[in-house]
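re: ur question from earlier - yeah i can do the single chain one, its not a big deal. heres the input i used so u can compare w yours
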Amino acid sequence: MQTDETDRALIALLQENARLPVATLARRLGLARTTVQARLERLENAGVIAGYSLRLSQSARPALRATALVSIEPRSGPAVLARLKSLPQVRRVHTTSGRFDLIVTLEAETTEALDETLDRIGEAKGVRGSESLIHLSTKLDRGA
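and the output i got, formated as tokens:
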């Protein structure tokens, strides 16, 4: 679906605060409320807007966050991904190019839980190796 400048402006407002009422969105965009409502429905139906979610503050998130860089054996991707999906501390998995095959984002309440999860990742069939990076502080979060 093709989006225009107005769609992009509407999306930008929603990315700042997805709870803005349609009337407020319309006022900020200089459009009629019914026009904004129709655009929202069109963007949702086309899958441009996949959903609305809650972003927790840093204080409400699990205490520890980490990134695991994972190398896997050829053709083992589906099995490794299934293992990662079974681990509740795994929040996101991205494929990547370069020395590592996967970037895994983790969240845990304790160092023990984080260590256990890293062990489960490392022992998964098809995992060749991994390197973990503990997040210390967040300097920029655009909510992606």
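The mean pLDDT is 93. not sure if urs matches, ping me
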